[in-house]
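fyi for ur records
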Amino acid sequence: MAVGLAVTVLAGSLAVGPLGVHGIAAANAAGICVTALLLLRGLGPRVVAIEVRAVSRAIGRLAVATAAAALAGRLACPLLDAALPGPAALLGGALVVSAVFAATGYAVRAPEVVHLLALVRRRVRHVR
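which gave:
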């Protein structure tokens, strides 16, 4: 975990100048990813039987959905900001990002998204 913290500190100190708060967020994400990868690598098959390929595929699918949602939010931001007052623009952005994440996650068959949408469908049918 110390290596992940070192990555966060180093990347944050380099990125805060040119990127500001976004650089700090990116550095934090990089440190967390390094820590997770090292922990996953260190666990190996000894502690918990993890199918690394299956986990990697699932994470890759979620990363695609996340990237699509982030891009949609970035593109929608100026449009929503110009058309709606502050709180409504924020709500609209949250809805756009959530909808794109769900749609993309379903399209790429991310297991968590597919399961969540099936659960919501069952609950909605049950309420009727």
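Residues 52-83 form the longest helix (32 residues). thats all i got for now
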